[in-house]
Each structure stands twice: as C-alpha cells, then as structure tokens.
Amino acid sequence: MNRILIVDDEASIRLLYSQELMDEGYEVDTAGTIDEALGLLSEKSYSVALLDIKLKNESGLDLLQKLVKERHDMGVILSTAFSCYKDDFSAWLADGYVVKSSDMKELKDEIKRLIERKRVR
Amino acid sequence: MGYKCCWFNPGRNIKECPNIEEGEEYLFTSPRKRLVEKCINCKAFQEDIEQLPEESALRKIIVTLCEEYREQKGHLQSLSAFLTSKSREIKFLHELSLVLQTSMELDEVLSVAMTAITSGKGFGMNRAFLLMTDRDRKYLVGHLGVGPRNYEEAWRIWDEVDRSNFSLTELSKEFYKTKISSERAKFQDILEKLTISRNLKEHIFNRALNDRRPILVENASQNPDIDPELVSTLGVEQFLVMPLISRNRSIGILLADNFVTNKPITPRDVQSLQTFAFPVAFAIERASLYERLNDEVGKQAEANQKLKEQQELIVRMENMAVVGRITSSIAHSIRNPLAAIGGYARSLMKNGDFNEKKEYLEQILQKAKQLDEVLEEVLSYSDSIHPAIDCWDLNHLAVSVVAEMEERFEENGLTIVLNLDADLPQVWLDYKQIAYCLKTIINHAALTYPEAGTIEVETIGSEESVRLCVIDKAVTLSDEMKKALMTPFMETAELGQGVGLPLCKVILERHGSSFEIEDLQGGGTRYCIILQKQKEGEES
C-alpha cells in the first residue's frame, strides 16, 4: 500500500487530508512540524509527501530542499494557500503543486500521477 | 615817439580802451587787474614796450615777464580745463557706479555701460561692442553691440537723443527697457564675426586681455598685427580694444570706435575709458555670478521638488507593499480554515450520513467555494506577494508591456512594433522592475517623436545574453546627450531632464544586467537592456 506523509501546521487540514486520503486507500501519517516529519521519515518510507509551505515559524521549502536531495524515490507535492507560488515552484524543485481548496480532486489526481510515475520508473 | 596804450598816455580816457567789454567795468578802477587781464595781451601795449630803447634793462624785464606770464597763464588754463573735465568725469563715474552697484541684472549693467560709452553725455564714442568670455573660458563671444549701423541712422539717433534731453541714467534705463534686444539682433552678424577662440594668442583681443592693457589701434588696414578680416568687419582705421578684468578674471573686451565722425580717439579718452572699465568689469562679473547663482538655485529647487516627488512615491509604494503583505497574510489565514470547512462539508455529503440536511451542506460548500474565489482574486491582484525574481519569458513580458501601452500611443499616432526572437530562452528577472524599465524607455523614445511614427521593441538571444531593445528612429544622440540621459537631473535642451532612465540604469545594474545606448546605422538610437543567461548549476 502506498504511504503518504502530510506535513501541515493546521490540525484541521491534517485531519481532513488524512481522512480523505485514507478513504482513497492510502496509508497516511501526519506531522505538524519539520522535526516531526523528519522523525517519521527516518522510520518509514513514503511514496508521496505533501508539504505546506508556511509552517508557523518554519518553511516547508527548507524541508523540500532536504527531501529532494535525500529522497529521490519519493514524490513531493507543495500545498499552499498562495496560488501565485505555483508558477515559481512547480517547475523548480517539487514534483507537484496544489493550492489548498475544499475540493481535493486536484490533490488526489496529483498524488495518483506521482505514484503512477514512480511505478513506470 | 607816440605811445598807443593808455599806460603811456596819462591824459587818455581809460574808458576808451577797446579791450574792455561790457561787464568788465571793474577794470577801470583796478589798474593791476587791467594789466594782467587785458594789457598783457594787448597789441598796442606790446608795441609801446617795443618802443623802449633796445638796450633798456626795463624793456627786457617787461618783455620776459610778459612772456613768462602768458606761458604760465596758458598752462593754468589748460590745467583748469583738465580739472574741469576730470571733475565732470568723476561726477559721471560716480553716477554710473551708483547704478552699477545697485544693479544685479546683467542686461541692466550692460545697458548702463554701453550707453555711457556711446552717449554724447558719456564718453561720446560712435559705436561699441562687448565680447564676453564664455563659461569654459575657451571663447570670447560677441555679446552686444550699440550704436548706429550707418550714417543715416547715426544722425537720426543723435537727433532723437538731443531732443529727448535725457540724463545718462535715464538714457540707459530707456535702452535697457526698449532697445537691448533689438540692438543685439541688429549687430548679430558683426558679433558672430567678432567671436574668437581664446587660444589665438596673437589676436589683438587676446593680447589686450592677456597683457591687461588697452590697445589703441591706428591705421588698422596697414597694421600687420591686425587680422584683415577684423578690419573689414569693423570698417574703421582707428579703434580701441579695452580689456575687462575683475579680480584677475578675464571678463571680456570692450571695442569702441568713431566710425561715423572719424573723430580721433585720444590717449586721454583711452585713460578715461580705462578708469571706467574697472567698475564695469566688476559689475558684469557680479551680475553674471548672480545670474548663475539664480540658475543653480532654480535647478536645486527643481531637483528638490523631484526628490520630494520620488520620496513620496517611495512612501506610497512602501504603503502599498504593506497593504499587499497584510492582504496576503489575511488571505492565507482565511484560506486554510476555509479549505477545512469546505473539505469537511464535502466529506460529510460524500458519506451520506446527513442526507436529510444535504441542502445545508450544499450551502456550506457553495459559500466556501465563493469565498475561495474571492480569495483567489485578492491574492492574484496583490502585487506585493509576487516573487522578486523568477524565470520569465522575456517575449511574454514585452508583449504584455506593449499591449498595456499601445492604446495610449495610438491616440498620438505612434505605433509600437514587436520584433521577437521566437527561440528566446527563459531568463531570471524581476518582472516588475524589467517591465518598469521597458515602459520608461518606450515612454522616453515616444517623447522624441515630433509626430506619428513607429517604435520597435525587439528581443534577441545570443550565447551569453538576452537583449531587450527599444529602437527610436527619430533621434540620434550625441555622446554628451547619452551621458546626460544617464545622469539624474542633468538637462539637455533636446531631451529634457528627469530620473527615469538613470533610475533604469541603477535598477538594471542592481539586477546584474546592463543598459546600453547605441547609435543605429542610418540614424536613430537603440536602447538595450542586456540580461545575462542563467548558466547551468548557478543559483538564482
């Protein structure tokens, strides 16, 4: 089963995403801080990580750089409230980019796309 | 022996003396005064003296005393005339210096000086020219000519002046108010011909200035030291070259002549004019400095005004940036809970647990979506949250900027043509700043078009760089103008002044790019923004 890591400082978002993704048949872990995320990453491997860019006093981009360097096998999707970052980062380090929305179709499609890509490789 | 004079005829009635005129009756009672004032020059008296025996000591003494007396009297009369003329000159100079001291305006000073030289109530020269050294001290430039151009005009002017009975001060005021511009125009051709380089050391003007002494030129056409062209320009044989020097600074030259009356200029005239030249030179220098000071104060005030405007603009932009940050922060804070609210409602609907309240859930979802759209709009229009630097398609930038400007330009008959390199790679740039620079350059180019025309905007890719250029076919710039364009507040008559292009240069340099202005073959100017290509492995 594909495992997904959700990193977001908002508990409500973590809960919503994990519920929705579990309903889709994924195994889901959540982290509220970068430290928590790194702890989980050291224990388990994930197919996809979903990162919020603004994490209270931290930046999801710092974690993104680390993951891109060290976890080549894992897809990383940036999730943020700022749609304008999309043009900058989607073609840059992350594998995907979604703007937070009540409709999670785009997020789910993106996860599917990355898992599919991994399978092809 | 018959004596003719009354002295030798005691019986003769003194009142019959032919030398004593009406009003000189006091001489009848004062033999001493009669002797020195009349008899000594009386022919009869002299003839009577000569009748004395030749060997008579008395005759010799009287003749010697008479000759000596006449000589001394002539000398005294000449000194008295000299003193009278000097005292008149001092009075006249005093009057002039009062006007010169109180006048700060160059033209007013020149009016006083030139009127004094050419007026019969002043130095009475027929004509005068003033040449002034330019600011760089490279040329002596013909500045003003005063006087008639021909005989007819001369008699007319002098007749007018005679009839007006103006004092010198009144004449100079009249000249300043009504004539200075027309006189300048009247002598424009001569003034241009008189202009010379200060490097021509042997030219008589430069000699007078460098040696700091006046030169009275005689027989000009025969004089090998005088440029024949100058002789032909002035059309006189005698003229005076008077240097104007103030505090070791060469202010200029005064040329004076009597081209109508041909009255000789005497050494005394030269001396008087030399005395006059000192306060004139000082007053001209002071007025010139005052004029320049006023210019500088004006420029300073203008620069201050521009700075103030720029500061206000910066403050406005900072305020907008703050508003942008606040907007984006609020939007971010709202989007997260909104995504959660909508997401949960959607989840509940999907599970079907609340089918009887499905409408409520739909309402929640719909409103969440509506708010999400509003947020998207707010964030899209909040400029301040744009990233500073990103990888952009320069062609896209050019198209957007031109689209924004072309409607306004079309109203003025100007067309902007795009000539874009289709294979242009994306480059790292600050979109807002480069767009600002492009707009500024296009606006600048548009100002140079006197009427309808076409401005070209082109992009060119090369191995090292990407160029974004604006082609202005209306104007070819001199090196000086190019330099002026890159200097804030520096003015060129043709291009005005401002901070637009200098600011672009600073923006581009900070951006790691460069700005060049090139001449176009066949006329025109190309303004180029040169952006370096990002090399592989380089960080932005």
Would you kindly provide a written description of the structure presented here, covering whatever features stand out?
The complex is a heterodimer of chains A (121) and B (540). Chain A is α/β, with parallel strands linked by helices and 121 residues long. Chain A has a single domain (3-120), classed as Response regulator (Rossmann fold), CATH 3.40.50. In chain A, 45% of the residues lie in helices and 24% in strands. Chain A contains five helices and seven strands, in the order βαβαβββαβαβα. Chain A has helices at residues 11-23, 34-43, 60-70, 86-89, 105-120; strands at residues 3-7, 27-31, 48-52, 54-55, 58-59, 75-80, 96-99. Chain B has 540 residues and is α+β, with helices and mostly antiparallel strands. The relative contact order of chain B is 0.05. Chain B is rod-shaped. Classes of the chains: A alpha/beta (121), B alpha+beta (540).
What's the short version?
The complex is a heterodimer of chains A (121) and B (540). By secondary structure, chain A is an alpha/beta fold.
Poorly predicted tracts of residues of chain A: 87-91
User: What is the helix content of chain B?
Assistant: 40-55%
**Overall body shape of chain B:** rod-shaped
Secondary structure: helix percent of chain A: 40-55%
Basic shape of chain A: globular
N to C succession of SSEs of chain B: HHHHHEEHHHEHEHEEHHEHEEHEEHHEE
Brief descriptors of the model:
heterodimer, A: 121 residues, alpha/beta, Rossmann fold, five-stranded parallel β-sheet, two-stranded antiparallel ribbon, 5 helices, 7 strands, B: 540 residues, alpha+beta, Beta-Lactamase, Helix Hairpins, six-stranded antiparallel β-sheet, five-stranded mixed β-sheet, 16 helices, rod-shaped, disordered C terminus
